[in-house]
Amino acid sequence: MAGQWSGAGATRSRQTGRPAAAALALLTLLTCCVRCAEPTGIKPSNIILILADDQDVELGGMTPMKKTKALIGDAGATFVNAFTVTPLCCPSRSSILTGQYPHNHEVRNNSLSGNCSSSLWQKGPESEAFPIYLNKQKYQTFFAGKYLNQYGKKDGGDVSHVPPGWDQWHALVGNSQYYNYTLSVNGKEEKHGDSYEKDYFTDLITNRSLHFLDDRSPQHPFFLMLSPPAPHSPWTAAPQYQKEFNTVKAPRDGSFDKPGKDKHWLLRQPVNPMPNSSLNFLDDAFRKRWQTLLSVDDMVETLLKKLESIKELNNTYIFYTSDNGYHTGSSLKHRPCSHHSGHLRGQPVCREHGRPVLPPPDGSLSA
């Protein structure tokens, strides 16, 4: 990833540079977190990685997340010119886990036939994913949330498959849901219903991470990867947030509802101009996406308070990012999966308490 930095830890910036994989930059930073303590014998820093699902940047996807911006971005560093390797969930997540581009890990799309959580993936790239190396460094590892789109399916090892390197495993079977889903809990099937108190998935991820922190061994560092469903469809917000942003509409700037007559054939398919029914749908989807993110914002605040209460705040790196971007109304109506910069753009934020997060001398990370 190459790009400009901003935030309390940023000292320089660069406006230009070749966009590479945000995943590779994350792995570089994770490696630093582990290795920087090795010569001194000090316990390595703890790491928390929060991975949202389809959260955009160019449409203001971070706007509703005031707590996250204040607690992580403003207090640490923001990668303002970051790009994912692909605008599709499973290939992008596979790159985050391995540090490899899709042409190397060979996950081509979100299907089993496209190598998403397939047996070939499990025998190959997954067996060399970064949690394995953290585990070898005596990190206590915890995963909760959406893993890969085809994870847990019968043709992909079923729920009994727990990827190597994870001490605690609470993974969603299939794609993002907020209610009525199935989890693999350390290889055992666990079904959930539609009770907000018991089942709302973002809150469940938060609560189980808190239990993990209570039960951890203070003698060893920990790594948490939390992957909430927001703001992916079906855009089901927590009850207390379902009336928020009622006057907000999808942005009308840029390429919104613009004809694609001189563009790629795929961009020429939608009806133009869009009918009112489509515009109303886009506005509703846009509001609901923001509503679901408010629970993720609560997650971040809750985690930081917990770290403070167990006296680990000053020794923990916290990363917040997304697997890819999204768009509403810009040529293809609404979807994450087109190879335009708006759908590849991400804006990871990072904070490490006790030590400033500093960029390299030229202000960028290149992979």
UniProtKB/TrEMBL annotation:
Cellular localization per UniProt: Lysosome
Region (Disordered): 331-367
Name of protein: N-acetylglucosamine-6-sulfatase
Keyword set, alphabetical order: Calcium, Glycoprotein, Hydrolase, Lysosome, Metal-binding, Signal
Cofactor(s) this protein cannot do without: Ca(2+)
Enzyme Commission code(s) on record: 3.1.6.14
Listed GO MF terms: glycosaminoglycan binding; metal ion binding; N-acetylglucosamine-6-sulfatase activity
Bias kind Basic residues: ranges: 332-343
Source species taxonomy: Eukaryota, Metazoa, Chordata, Craniata, Vertebrata
GO cellular component, one term: lysosome
Pro residues: bias regions: 357-367
Modified residue annotations for 3-oxoalanine (Cys): C89
BP term (GO), one: glycosaminoglycan metabolic process
Source organism of the structure: Xyrichtys novacula (Pearly razorfish)
Keyword Calcium attached: yes
This protein's record includes keyword Hydrolase: yes
Catalytic activity, reaction form: Hydrolysis of the 6-sulfate groups of the N-acetyl-D-glucosamine 6-sulfate units of heparan sulfate and keratan sulfate
